[in-house]
Give the backbone structure.
Amino acid sequence: MQLTGIHHLTAISAHAKGNLAFYTGVLGMRLVKKTVNQDDVSAYHLFYADGKASPGTDLTFFDWPTAREHRGTHSVARTGLRVNGEKALGFWQDRLLKLGVHTGKVTEVDGRLTLPFEDPEGQRLVLVDDGGTGEANPWEKSPVQAEHQIRGLGPIVLNVPELSRTERALVDVMNMKRVRDYASPDGEHRIHVYAMGAGGPAAEIHVIEQKDLPPARQGAGGVHHVAFRTPDEASYHAWTKRLSEFGINHSGEIDRFYFRSLYFREPNGILFEIATDGPGFATDEAMETLGEKLALPPFLEPRRKEIEAGLKPLK
Ligand code: ZN
């Protein structure tokens, strides 16, 4: 039984309007769903993805009016966004510079060209050349030309105080393979690479062990959780059973309407989710108009007026 890649990553923003402007206007991603946090309906939950809202491409944000994240261990340290080829990285370096976004340099890391940068709230991101592997579904209304658009997520970098504990979860429970390690760009750490499914940049977790760093305090500019893909309902139920057999505390199966979810914490405390590829974002809206109006799952629909009144305008 194999997870097939990164499904989505959910991060935290304290400024929904600026977040929308950055991810659609600067990064050129498609807003594919504008909804509310199902556990706190005063907060937006915004989903950015490729042109078809494909699994493996969603970067999502909870809009919470919180302080900035204090960076540290027990957290996701950087999120990879895949692009195709060296030319794309040159394009992005120029574009981000022109739009006032500070970036690092285009550098080869772990055999791939990368360009690290941060969003306006300090969310750590990196563009990674995936060599054009796998699918691309560009968004025709993006301000970024199709060939240079972000193709999806991966790899995701975790920072933990004790590698062996996280490794046991990734390898023994989640059936990933430890495939290699490499030196961090500053030369100070080894980064360990775990692959799931067919592997490659869309299906890797990179782990840094840092014993000397305090634990992160979650906040704006940080990550809430990372989700992994499972192809169908049968494999999803099998994962639920497997976590129970290992004695791992988990959320139980939760229907998130656009996909089915199962949450648990790996042993260093980072929140993981296993999510099904389907049914997808076009279950309650037409593919052409995804994200244009506030979408609510059926159980919240009766409260639409009240929920809409409690949300800030995004434009
Ligand atoms: Zn999630």
Residues 231 and 277 are 5 Å apart (CA to CA). The chain has one domain: 6-309.
